[in-house]
UniProtKB/TrEMBL annotation, chain B:
Keyword annotations from UniProtKB, A to Z: Cell membrane, Membrane, Transmembrane, Transmembrane helix, Transport
Transmembrane segments: 26-47, 79-103, 115-132, 144-165, 249-270
Residue stretches making up the ABC transmembrane type-1 domain: 80-270
InterPro entries: MetI-like (IPR000515), MetI-like_sf (IPR035906)
Protein name, UniProt field: Carbohydrate ABC transporter permease
CDD domains: TM_PBP2 (cd06261)
Chief place of localization: membrane
Lineage of the organism: Bacteria, Pseudomonadati, Pseudomonadota, Gammaproteobacteria, Oceanospirillales
Length: 312, 284
């Protein structure tokens, strides 16, 4: 009879753990102490403000020192009946739809270009990536030289060609498009590097095999390369979605959300409400809407994207 | 992916040297020129007198006047100092706080560790700048308005840093740790002598990403500062070049270049490290 029957592998380890029970306790305490600074900071600047924002969106501040008053979802009713909010939300959606597919497609094209044996590849790659390094504020300043109505480069070029100028940032029907173009310029190079890394991970045998079969490059791209890049596309997409909500720096220079809110985005609207109109309650209510959008993006990331990734 | 790659087997490389560039090469270069043009234009504008900006005479006389003007009209020296202090303190504080937390997550038996870790990851989506209203209130209650600490502190416990370092620490073999313990090292010594040195590439990658982020960050610094004493370069530049101030364009160009120069030069010198860092930090 096997003398070790019934003894599970690892039992010795368990005994070791039981024997050093106080050690285990000590390690728990030690671990907790190591976590403490991060936990305190996260609580102060992430969890508490999130909770406070949600709570504030359910209250109205009392006037002249009167206590705050619980109003339930009334602030949301006010927000949802505010046409400006819907305009801003629609802008943000259009902004996301305008920037994301184009910058992803451009990023992929850039990566494909740079992945080949291109002459002057180093320069080309550098040119694509450099806008990523600039602060959004600087990028906006530079694009101001293009968009400005009288002396801007775009209108001067149009003038040379005999067309009348466009008010790139002042015309409500054009302004959001102008902002989108600048954002694409700023972002595409950043997404390129992820596609480039993924392309370099595709085994060259696939290409050789398809060449033997005489597959055209076009169908090789759509049948092999593009599907293999899907995880990268998802990853980049999620980053792009977050950026579409999070980055509004350029509006401070280009349009300040105008003309007549034509380029206003949700986070900029929060800023306006809080620090220009001093309506903290409305700012909190819009922030909750942004947090909900981010929660959807986070769910998308943790369910769709991380099925492949292991956290252990 | 390009035709050069697929045909390299059939043609000797020399034969291609004189060939007409393919359509793809032309497209790649065209896109590259479009992409770099705005920056080149800003360079051109900054080094020429402002009257040529409108007429765009390519070989107008060179001048450094615009830089002198920008430097004289706004306290850029102070902004540089502020940004430098901000970036240094944020990155150092992030290294310390994130290392400790990552070590705890990687090696210590904390009850509810996975739930706690998911809670940390939430911060990947809920950034300090999304919560500007409440963070402003908290910063003012802590007396941090208009201080460098106020700009940096919300970013110190970075979920991203904790995540990256934890992943790295987990790959380090336990045997090294055991060996150090036999030599009489305590936990902090093990962390400092075994884990931190082996995670150097991660620190470099995270450091570069964090430096770029905080050098360029704008919204939260704008909200939390209100004077020259604490404003970083981005906010200083934003205040200086706001269209309504009517500063002339050549000066704005010069000011823009002044604020981006250090990071841009660092990037051009260490391109590979920057790109690798962004990649390493991104693919997780």
């Amino acid at each position: 009879m096997d003398p070790f029957a019934g003894v599970r592998p690892g039992a010795f380890n368990e005994r070791y753990v039981i024997m050093s029970f106080t050690d285990h306790r000590k390690m728990q305490l030690y671990g907790a102490l190591l976590l403490l600074p991060a936990a305190l900071l996260l609580a102060t600047f992430a969890y508490l403000p999130t909770i406070a924002t949600v709570v504030n969106s359910l209250f109205l501040p009392g006037f002249r020192g009167a206590p705050t008053q619980f109003v339930g979802l009334e602030n949301y009713q006010v927000l949802f009946s505010d046409p400006t909010f819907w305009k801003v939300a629609r802008n943000n959606l259009l902004y996301a739809l305008g920037t994301i597919p184009t910058s992803l497609a451009l990023a992929l094209a850039m990566a494909l270009f740079v992945n080949g044996k291109l002459r002057g590849r180093g320069f080309v790659r550098m040119a694509y990536f450099t806008p990523t390094i600039l602060p959004m504020i600087a990028a906006a300043n530079i694009w101001m030289f293009f968009y400005a109505p009288q002396i801007g480069l775009f209108n001067k070029l149009l003038g040379i060609l005999g067309f009348s100028g466009v008010n790139w940032l002042g015309d409500p029907s054009v302004a959001l498009g102008s902002v989108i173009v600048m954002s694409i310029w700023k972002e595409a190079g950043f997404f390129m590097i992820f596609y480039l890394a993924a392309l370099q991970g595709i085994p060259p045998e696939l290409k050789e095999a398809s060449d033997l079969e005489g597959t055209s490059r076009w169908s090789f791209f759509w049948r092999v390369t593009f599907p293999l890049l899907m995880p990268t596309t998802l990853f980049v997409l999620i980053n792009a979605l977050i950026n579409a909500v999070r980055v509004v720096d350029h509006l401070f220079i280009l349009t300040k959300g105008g003309p007549n809110n034509a380029t206003n985005l949700l986070l900029y609207y929060v800023y306006e409400n809080a620090f220009s109109f001093f309506d903290r309650t409305m700012a909190a209510t819009i922030t909750v809407v942004i947090l909900l959008v981010l929660a959807v993006v986070a769910t998308l990331k943790f369910t769709v994207l991380d099925r492949r990734t292991h956290y252990q | 992916m390009s035709s050069t790659l697929s045909h390299s087997k059939t043609h000797p490389p020399r034969a291609r040297f004189f060939s007409v560039p393919s359509l793809e090469t032309i497209a790649a270069w065209l896109l590259a020129l479009i992409w770099i043009f705005p920056l080149l234009y800003a360079f051109w504008a900054a080094f020429h007198p402002s009257e040529f900006m409108v007429s765009f005479t390519l070989f107008a006389p060179l001048t450094l006047e615009n830089f002198a003007d920008a430097w004289g009209q706004a306290p850029f020296a102070r902004y540089y100092l502020n940004t430098f202090m901000l970036v240094t303190t944020v990155v150092l504080a992030q290294f310390i706080v994130c290392t400790l937390a990552a070590f705890a997550f990687a090696r210590f038996p904390i009850p509810g560790k996975n739930v706690l870790f998911m809670l940390v990851l939430i911060q990947l989506f809920v950034f300090p700048e999304v919560l500007i209203v409440e963070n402003y209130r908290i910063a003012s209650e802590l007396g941090l308005i208009n201080t460098i600490t106020g700009i940096g502190l919300p970013y110190v416990a970075s979920a991203f840093g904790i995540f990256l370092l934890r992943q790295t620490f987990k790959t380090i073999p336990r045997e090294l740790e055991d060996a150090a313990r036999i030599e009489g090292c305590n936990w902090l010594e093990i962390l400092w002598k075994v884990y931190v040195p082996l995670a150097k590439p991660t620190y470099l990658a995270y450091g570069l990403v964090s430096i770029s982020h905080h050098w360029n960050n704008f919204l939260w610094p704008l909200v939390v500062t209100n004077s020259v004493e604490s404003r970083p370069l981005t906010v200083g530049l934003g205040v200086f070049s706001a269209p309504e101030t009517g500063v002339n364009w050549a000066t704005v160009s010069a000011a823009t270049l002044l604020s981006i120069a250090p990071l841009l030069i660092a990037f051009l010198l260490f391109q590979r490290q920057f790109v690798q860092s962004f990649l390493r930090a991104g693919i997780r």
